[in-house]
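Researcher: Good morning. I'm working through a list of sequences from a screen, and I'd like to move beyond sequence-only analysis. For each chain I'm collecting a predicted structure so we can compare shapes side by side. This is the next one on the list. No need for commentary yet; just the structure.
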Amino acid sequence: MKYLTREQAIQEAGLEAVVQAEQYNAYDYWWDKTTNTYLFAGEAKGYSAEFDCPVTVYAIYEQDYDVVMAEEDLSNLDWEIAYYLVK
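Model: Good morning. C-alpha cells for this chain:
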C-alpha cells in the first residue's frame, strides 16, 4: 500500500475508480485511537500501469475526534482526504 496524491491516484487507477471511492457512504466510519481521528474509507477497483495489474484505490477521510463529537451531521464536516493504492 502506498500513499498517493489525487492526481497520482487517477493516473494509477483511473478517474472513475477515484470518484467511486470518494463517493463512498460517509456514515461507514471508525475512530482511530492512535491518531485521535475519525476515519472512513471508500474503495474502488482500477488498473495500475506501474504495477501492470488490477489495483484498489482507497480514499481515506480523516477528521479530528473533537470536531466530530461537536457535530451531529457527519456530512457537514471538513474531512481531510488521503489516497492509498494496493495491488
